[in-house]
Amino acid sequence: MKSMLLSAACVMLMFTVTSSTASASVLWGSSIHDGNLVEIDTTTGAATVVGAFRSYGISGLCYDPARDRLYGLDRDDDTLVKISTVTGFAHTVGPLGVSTSAAGLTYDVLTDTIYFSCFTDRNIYKVDKITGAATLIGPHDVPNGYMQGLAYDWNTNTLYGSDSRTNSLYTIDTTTGHATLVGSLGIITVDNGLAFDNGNNILYLVEAQTSQTPDNKLYTINTTTGHATVVGSLGVSVQGLAFKSPVPEPASLMLLSLGSLAILRSRR
């Protein structure tokens, strides 16, 4: 319990320091066919190139607002990378120790944790931000599932996953990895990514270009039913997705952190 309190206190301190320099919201995507970081217009879906990674293999993305840092997973060499939001260039953090193929990535601000869903072994992991090493949580238990998208809702402490084999939305238990069905997306998603706008409580999904999904689109997802509603065409093939939400005020973060601790304590 003391370790959880210390972790929450440390995260609150980081937000207190960075809140004065917080900038506007941004939705980023990884354009896998041309190896670029893009910014996506959340009203039209149109993608604008920021710059090139160093690889065509960047699949999952997530944003850590406490450190103002964008992370990605490089499936070409199975590494965690840090990405410049100015140039798009990806710097290696370290090896995951897991073969990824395609993967989802997301960040939980309340526990300062990166989660990653592995396409190849169908497991959920935590990722060390310093070394890049992945630690197993457990299987998501979706039969033959491809859990490619991950997103974290800080307001309700909910980890979401989108599965491209079942074309459905799930919630995922962060202690066991087990996925619980929310509902069908109502669309075909061969390759996809998720991101959550915690400021406006909006879950976004993108689909990458394949023979089955030739027109890449941005969607919003109903978190109660799982149903996807189209926003617009991206213009490029995007798979990874990350949202830069406004940094919470320290008082708001205190309430979120205490709520998170209460939930964690109730599970013990």
How is this structure best summarized?
The chain has about 270 residues and is mainly β. Helices cover about 15% and strands about 45% of the residues.
Please tell me about this protein's structure.
This protein has helices at residues 2-18, 250-267; strands spanning 26-31, 36-40, 47-52, 58-64, 69-74, 79-83, 90-95, 103-108, 113-118, 123-127, 134-139, 147-153, 158-163, 168-172, 179-184, 192-197, 202-207, 217-221, 228-233, 238-244. The protein has 268 residues and is mainly β. Strands 3-2-1-20 form a four-stranded antiparallel β-sheet, with no helix packed on it. A hairpin with a 4-residue loop joins strand 16 and strand 17. Helix 1 (2-18) packs antiparallel against helix 2.
